[in-house]
Amino acid sequence: MFQAAAKTFSVAPTASVCRGILSSIRQYCKKTPTKLRVSEALSSAELGTNVKVQGWVRSVRPQKANLFLHVNDGSSLQSLQIVAGSELCDPLLTFGSAVEVTGILKKSPNQKQTVELEADQIHVVGECNPVDFPFKIKERHGLEYIRQFPHLRCRTNAFSSLLRVRSEATTAIHSYFKENGFVQIHTPIITSNDCEGAGELFQVEPSGPEHEEGENFFSVPAFLTVSGQLHLEVMSGAFSRVYTFGPTFRAENSQSRRHLAEFYMVEAEVSFTQSLEDLTKVMEDMFRSATEHVLAHCAEDVALFHKHVTPGHRDTIDAMMKRRFPVITYSEAIDILNRSSQKFTFPTDWGCDLQTEHEKYLVKHCGNIPVFVTDYPYDLKPFYARDNQDHPKHTAAAVDLLVPGVGELCGGSLREERLDLLRARLEEYLDLRRFGSVPHGGFGLGFERFLQCILGIDNIKDVTPFPRFSHSCLL
Predict the structure, then answer these.
(1) Any idea where the Aminoacyl-transfer RNA synthetases class-II family profile domain is (predicted)?
(2) For residue range 171-204, what is the model confidence (pLDDT) as tens digits?
(3) Domain check: are 115 and 212 in the same one?
(4) Is the pTM higher than 0.90?
């Protein structure tokens, strides 16, 4: 527009003409609304300016002279109040409809909100029939109910809060590792190794008429990864601190509240260490750093869960953050369980694998704060766990972090770097130790379980955007 106006001048414009052009530019800019997210509008930074907000209607209140809307775009738990004249009321303005609103952002006279948008235009971008919409305007829906609608549950306050917390927790974990000198490694999703030897794998095979049934695309059987640990061990021969954060897959029975077929895992590997203390320090520091970040940056979202979904859980979180995490050995844990008056479903003999009921009891026994359990029976841990060479109870230098409400959150170990001990156990593993091997260790943290821990959520399927578990529907 202004380029076209400038071309009409055959000679240089005078000062007064320049002032006129500048005035026109200012008027044009003043009339063009500034596009804001709801969170930006609520910050009051653009008071008195012409703005545009896009989002979804959370409430509609038509009156004789005025129309009141609350609009949310997912950037904040709090919605922005829209005030308009009754002439802007549209039959399509319903709960759940998508709208675009322009007007002047003003300070609100009502104490319930600091700002409001005085609308001069409301455009319904997408209609929503509130009768058919499964979430109702004045109802608080439980997590079990909204789980039935995986494609729509992001529209609810609870799940949109969960997703903002999940996003901030992801940022916090990456920030912790970056600040502490770890190099991020993108480990493969498709791999030929089982890693943990449990055999609970999803096999990957090519499809299509050009591929024969049973044909191996990579010439060997390939699977969706259960862990990036073995690939991190490769990298630990060149980098002293590495980590990965990505999806992992387990083909186990995932109908329980604790399991998913697809979930995210945080894994780290630290070289030049022969101390479990080095690992537990990283595990505890990462947990604290990520939790503090989430509490600081998602205060409203976390408060929603602690008030309406898991009342009283904030006290548990505060207690966690005030005390260092105690450390007990597996043998001490078995003694605690055997002295307990509680009747357990599973046995508690030395050498048994700790079950969820055991883990939760140990957490409560230690003050309902996270607790490290170290030095597990050698036969319970994978071949790569470092042999403590102790007798008569043979143990491995392995550690689990148990947390309130969840049980096991992290599992790790020092890795067996001694070639003579490994030679008798697994020939194919030797090349990683033969060329410049160093003492090292690592751990894995289930990201969804971390979210369960800080929010107090009982079912793991309520902390992931699209839960994958056996017999679940696929969008």
Answers:
(1) 163-465
(2) 999 999 999 999 999 999 999 877 665 558 898 8
(3) no
(4) no
